[in-house]
Amino acid sequence: MKDAEAIYRTPLAAAGGLAVTGSGRQHARHAVVDRKLPNFAVVLVERGRGALETAASGRLSLAGPALFWLFPNRAHSYGPDEGGWDERWALFEGSLTRDFVRLRIIAERHPIVALHYLDELSRLFSQLHADLLDDTNLRQAAAALTLHRIVISAARQASGATDRRRERLDTADIVEALRRRAMQPLDLAAFAAEHGMSPATLRRRFMLETGMPPKAFQLRARMDHAKQLLATTDEKIETVAALVGLDDPFYFSRIFHEREGCSPREFRARYWRV
Hints:
Blueprint: E1 4-8, E2 19-28, E3 32-35, E4 40-47, E5 49-54, E6 58-63, E7 66-70, E8 76-80, E9 85-93, H1 96-102, E10 112-114, H2 118-133, H3 137-159, H4 161-180, H5 188-194, H6 199-210, H7 214-232, H8 237-243, H9 249-260, H10 264-271
Antiparallel strand pairs: 1-2, 2-9, 3-8, 4-7, 4-9, 5-6, 5-8, 7-10
Helix pairs in contact: 2-3, 4-6, 8-9
Protein name: AraC-like DNA-binding protein
Keywords: DNA-binding, Transcription, Transcription regulation
Organism: Rhizobium esperanzae
């Protein structure tokens, strides 16, 4: 990394929502002491350790990878330990920043975001810097969009949403596994163990993903398949019941009526497709 790279831009007159006014990167060796900026700033510390101090947050230690926010007209001091740190930074302003603050996407009392996933933010800072190199209206607008993505990416990591998103992707696979096997008997404890969790955890994650526990989800899948069979085949009602995993046709008819407000025969008469 070069010792320092910096670009400064005057915002477009029409860029009232969000404008990037500067960007850079450096291996910082010295502290910034008691400085005030006229605009917002975001500093990405990729490697290294140091501290940040503001009136709102007090003195905070930080270790890269981490990111912190600086607020306009607020005194701040920050800098690395003796070894220095690798940092990227951007300056920004505009009316959209009020929404960032109002929604607590960026918070003056909690300015530091410890990062679990550095690559995405490093890439976004590189893109923002490249956008500013080309001093055109289109590239300044692109830089503003990239800054917005930096704000959202940091907020997700601050809230743990990245981990939750990964958990949701895992849960979606489990939901799909149960959907494929919905016509078969379900041993909840065995199914949970197959996916490395307790039945209680399975129920909780199913509730978050689908709004219903696994047994209810299985029954819905069975009834949906029954409706398909009733509408597209001429199989007998007892056969349809068996095909969706319910050996008692009377129980099947009662459950079907409770859910659909009509009997299987009435449903077939209404939606017959053959």
